[in-house]
Amino acid sequence: MRARDVARAIAAGRVLAGVAFLVAPALAGRGWIGADAERPAVRAIFRALGVRDLILGLLTLHVVDRPGVGRRTVATCAAADAVDFAATLAARDALPPAAANGVLAVAAGAAVAGAAAAAAIA
Fold first, then answer.
1. 21 and 29 Cβ atoms separated by less than 8 Å
2. Would you list the domain boundaries of the chain?
Protein backbone atom coordinates (compact mmCIF):
# COMPACT_ATOMS: atom_id res chain seq x y z
CA MET A 1 0.00 0.00 0.00
CA ARG A 2 1.33 3.43 -0.94
CA ALA A 3 1.92 6.12 1.66
CA ARG A 4 -0.87 8.32 0.31
CA ASP A 5 -3.27 5.38 0.47
CA VAL A 6 -2.33 4.82 4.12
CA ALA A 7 -2.91 8.51 4.79
CA ARG A 8 -6.30 8.36 3.05
CA ALA A 9 -7.35 5.29 5.07
CA ILE A 10 -6.41 6.96 8.36
CA ALA A 11 -8.17 10.15 7.25
CA ALA A 12 -11.34 8.24 6.36
CA GLY A 13 -11.31 6.60 9.79
CA ARG A 14 -10.81 10.02 11.36
CA VAL A 15 -13.84 11.38 9.45
CA LEU A 16 -15.99 8.47 10.64
CA ALA A 17 -14.83 8.90 14.23
CA GLY A 18 -15.45 12.63 14.02
CA VAL A 19 -19.01 12.12 12.81
CA ALA A 20 -19.63 9.53 15.53
CA PHE A 21 -18.41 11.89 18.26
CA LEU A 22 -20.55 14.71 16.86
CA VAL A 23 -23.74 12.72 16.36
CA ALA A 24 -23.58 10.32 19.31
CA PRO A 25 -20.90 11.58 21.70
CA ALA A 26 -21.99 9.45 24.66
CA LEU A 27 -22.08 6.26 22.61
CA ALA A 28 -18.79 6.96 20.83
CA GLY A 29 -17.14 8.20 24.01
CA ARG A 30 -18.15 5.15 26.03
CA GLY A 31 -15.63 3.17 24.00
CA TRP A 32 -12.88 5.47 25.28
CA ILE A 33 -13.76 6.48 28.82
CA GLY A 34 -16.67 4.27 29.84
CA ALA A 35 -19.79 5.50 31.65
CA ASP A 36 -18.38 9.01 32.22
CA ALA A 37 -19.15 9.64 28.54
CA GLU A 38 -22.83 10.05 29.52
CA ARG A 39 -22.15 13.27 31.45
CA PRO A 40 -23.33 16.42 29.57
CA ALA A 41 -20.01 18.24 30.03
CA VAL A 42 -18.08 15.25 28.72
CA ARG A 43 -20.41 15.00 25.71
CA ALA A 44 -19.55 18.62 24.92
CA ILE A 45 -15.84 17.82 24.98
CA PHE A 46 -16.37 14.77 22.77
CA ARG A 47 -18.29 16.91 20.27
CA ALA A 48 -15.34 19.32 20.16
CA LEU A 49 -13.02 16.36 19.60
CA GLY A 50 -15.36 15.15 16.88
CA VAL A 51 -15.12 18.47 15.05
CA ARG A 52 -11.32 18.32 15.30
CA ASP A 53 -11.21 14.84 13.81
CA LEU A 54 -13.79 15.59 11.13
CA ILE A 55 -11.90 18.68 9.98
CA LEU A 56 -8.48 17.01 10.09
CA GLY A 57 -9.78 13.99 8.18
CA LEU A 58 -11.51 16.03 5.48
CA LEU A 59 -8.52 18.35 5.18
CA THR A 60 -6.18 15.40 4.76
CA LEU A 61 -8.37 13.86 2.06
CA HIS A 62 -8.44 17.22 0.30
CA VAL A 63 -4.69 17.95 0.32
CA VAL A 64 -2.91 14.59 0.52
CA ASP A 65 -1.87 14.76 -3.15
CA ARG A 66 -0.56 18.32 -2.96
CA PRO A 67 3.22 18.58 -2.74
CA GLY A 68 4.43 19.88 0.60
CA VAL A 69 1.07 20.56 2.22
CA GLY A 70 -0.04 16.91 2.02
CA ARG A 71 3.01 15.73 3.91
CA ARG A 72 2.67 18.42 6.60
CA THR A 73 -1.04 17.71 7.07
CA VAL A 74 -0.48 13.97 7.45
CA ALA A 75 2.30 14.69 9.96
CA THR A 76 -0.02 17.01 11.89
CA CYS A 77 -2.65 14.28 12.12
CA ALA A 78 -0.02 11.81 13.32
CA ALA A 79 0.92 14.31 16.04
CA ALA A 80 -2.73 14.57 17.11
CA ASP A 81 -2.90 10.78 17.33
CA ALA A 82 0.28 10.73 19.42
CA VAL A 83 -1.30 13.23 21.82
CA ASP A 84 -4.44 11.05 22.05
CA PHE A 85 -2.17 8.12 22.89
CA ALA A 86 -0.23 10.07 25.54
CA ALA A 87 -3.39 11.49 27.14
CA THR A 88 -4.99 8.06 27.30
CA LEU A 89 -1.84 6.50 28.70
CA ALA A 90 -1.64 9.19 31.39
CA ALA A 91 -5.25 8.51 32.45
CA ARG A 92 -5.14 4.75 31.91
CA ASP A 93 -5.70 3.83 35.57
CA ALA A 94 -8.94 5.84 35.63
CA LEU A 95 -10.31 4.31 32.41
CA PRO A 96 -12.00 0.97 31.77
CA PRO A 97 -9.15 -1.40 30.85
CA ALA A 98 -10.64 -2.67 27.57
CA ALA A 99 -11.47 0.87 26.44
CA ALA A 100 -8.03 2.21 27.34
CA ASN A 101 -6.26 -0.66 25.61
CA GLY A 102 -8.36 -0.24 22.47
CA VAL A 103 -7.75 3.49 22.24
CA LEU A 104 -4.04 3.03 22.97
CA ALA A 105 -3.78 0.49 20.15
CA VAL A 106 -5.71 2.60 17.63
CA ALA A 107 -3.95 5.86 18.54
CA ALA A 108 -0.49 4.26 18.49
CA GLY A 109 -1.18 2.56 15.17
CA ALA A 110 -2.49 5.75 13.60
CA ALA A 111 0.40 7.83 14.99
CA VAL A 112 3.09 5.43 13.76
CA ALA A 113 1.45 4.71 10.40
CA GLY A 114 0.70 8.40 9.90
CA ALA A 115 4.25 9.44 10.73
CA ALA A 116 5.64 6.80 8.36
CA ALA A 117 3.24 7.89 5.63
CA ALA A 118 4.18 11.55 6.14
CA ALA A 119 7.86 10.69 5.88
CA ALA A 120 7.25 8.82 2.62
CA ILE A 121 5.08 11.50 0.98
CA ALA A 122 7.04 13.94 -1.16
1. yes
2. 3-120
